[in-house]
Predict the 3D structure of the following.
Amino acid sequence: MIQGRVEAIWLKRAHGGPMDEVSEATAIAGQGLEGNVDRSRRRQVTIIEREVWDELMRQLDAALSPSTRRANLMVSGIRLANTRGRTLRIGGVRIAIGGETTPCEQMEEALHGLQAAMRPCWNGGVFGQVLNDGIIAVGDSVSWDDGGC
């Protein structure tokens, strides 16, 4: 089984506000991460891949913090592209992947060319719905919970 790792967790206190890095977060079924303002019925949690972010920074000859992406979780060792409908297990929390997170104009404001570089191959990450309550911590294992490859 392919297994990854939680590399970072961020919460947003206010719309458009800074991303606060935390070592753990409480996931609430049907809601998202406790203390994070940007959560809706469909888009409760956003997730990016460390490897994709690092490659984007190489392509654009930049060194922005991954928090610039404004995602909640950064994982490594597991591919997120084309995973709509799959279930990701992060520690003891299950997240149903709803689709691709489309990069917004804030990415272009952060770095010229970043928004366009994120468009192909789901490079902007994914969003999902929290299926069960639990704690997600940096260092937790990440794997697919649906028997896929």
Notes: The mean pLDDT is 93.
